[in-house]
Amino acid sequence: MKRTLDGVGLRWDLPVLRSLDGYRWAWLPRDLTAGVLVVAVAIPLSMGMAEVAGMPPIVGLYSCVLPLAAYALFGSSRQLIVALDASTAAMVALAVAPVAGGDPIRYAALAGLVALLVGLILVLAGTFRLGFVAHLLSRPVLIGYQAGLALVVVVSQLPRLLGIAVEEDATFPRAFEIAGRLDESSLQTFAVGATCLAVVAFVAVWKPGLPAALFAIVGATLLVELVGPALADVDVLGELPAGLPPLRIPAFGAADVTALLPISAAIAVLAAADTIVSSRAFARRGGYEVDANRDLIGLGAANLASGLSGGITTSASAARTAVVEMVGGRSQLASVSAAAVMVAVLLFLTRPLEKVPAAALAAVVIGAVLRLIEVGSLRRLWRTRRIEFVIAIATTLAAVAIGLLEGIVTGVALSVGDSLVRAARRRLSRAPGRGTRAEEARPAPAPGIAVYRAGGPVIFANAHRLRDGVRRAAAGAPGARRLIVDASDVVDIDATAAETLADLRDDLAARGIELVLSGLNPQVRGVLDRADVPDRLPPAPVVDPAGSRPA
Question: If 85 and its partner were Cys, which of 186, 315, 321, 474 is the partner (CB 3.0–4.6 Å)?
Fold first, then answer.
């Protein structure tokens, strides 16, 4: 296990904190800034989620210390932030309240037990490599889920931005209640929040590398402090109790485990699906790879750490991860620095935070998650395959109207159904003389050329096999300057696979290897054309994989 600095980035060979592999010291300021902003956003959100779970607000802050460090150690995502989530928090309350019998001490212990059970289930799932479920999440599902999640978060933050109180929790009823209470809005609160949102949007366009959210929060806090009575209607965070989270195993019995295990398994499924989707979505946006099984282990470790330190169940936080992405955070040092900053907050810095306007934090969250709505990607889906656009929109609507987990399930079910319908309609054939293997590396027809043969339908469920196979073919042909994908037997392709080919082209081009397709049938070529993939992966010149002449 050695660590060296090779002039390009840090070489990190340890089995933990894998996001440090290839790390450049120039990224450190942004990671540290991201950690500070994560804490600034986490304070009100985490306290609110703790109340949703029926726990004291301080528990939300306890859940932002050891869990962040635990995921940073064992997870695979470079950017993902774990935190309290509204869906899992509500399920904790649903599970614990009937068993606790109104005893607040027992309630806290059982909530900790749920976190431990969820953590154990997730670690076992990752150990037994059950993260394959991630490959059932097609690109339309990812795009639709991100859009739905963004809308859910925006609606949840609007009351803070407008300075009104609402009672509804579900997204649509909450939106209707907000619309009906607009006349109760605080003009001062809205002015502070809208100004912060404008600052975030302007700086993001003007200088994307600058920490716009930090400028907005600091500016709003100074404004409230200096103006004082003129902004009396603007809500601020208020007093935070000081002290570190307690480290102990919650008190429970065998009967408690039996009673809470089923709902803990359901929470684990919800948290796992949310984390896998979020991890893959941000990895795709950031241009790196993630391991679903390691993410399950990392999330499990985070929940175990939360249960042992007075916290409750945690899951992926797209809002906080979007903040990290927005300021250019590049590694899990953002999570580690956030945990360290939260410790300092709990010990020393509760008083300065009393003047931070809640509307400013809401503006930062809204500005961050709106970037998750990929309008351009939705347009490409519309051009590529209308049914996949419909799947994305259906996923969004289900996530907003029913729930985030239900949105994912809806999208996966529609994607699988679409694949079955296409399979039933597809005319099966194979070119004479072809083998029966769906994919394989083939001998190079000439020096400097590598060939990979793909066959059958290439869709969201197996696009990762195409990606991995092409990369193995490139690795097995040192010195190759061109890699030909023999697609003669590819009978169908979807938007996820098309995007995978485009990403492969960029990946190989960075290593000086040209990726060329061979033998595209008209149907596949049409999908690639409509997906705008030719702009990134020109399908011509199409070559004969047996030689170098044009096909």
Answer: 315
Q: What is the maximum alpha-carbon separation in the chain?
A: 84
* Interval 287-299: pLDDT, tens: 788 898 999 999 9
**Residue 2 covered by a domain:** no
Phi, psi dihedral angles at 544 (to 5 degrees): -80, 120
Question: 441 by DSSP, 3-state: which?
Answer: strand
CB atoms closer than 10 angstroms to residue 313: 33
pLDDT confidence bin for 446, thresholds 50/70/90: low
Tokens 């965070």 belong to which residue?
237
Neighbour-count burial of 514, counting CB atoms closer than 10 A to its CB (0-12 exposed, 13-18 middle, 19+ buried): middle
In a domain, 528, yes or no: yes
- Its sign, for the CA torsion 107, 110, 114, 116, is positive
Q: Which residues contact 21 (CB under 8 A, 6 or more apart)?
A: 9, 10, 11, 12, 13
Q: Are residues 40 and 62 in the same domain?
A: yes
Residue 223 domain-assigned? yes
Q: Is 54 left (phi over 0), alpha (psi -120 to 50) or beta?
A: left
pTM above 0.85, yes or no: no
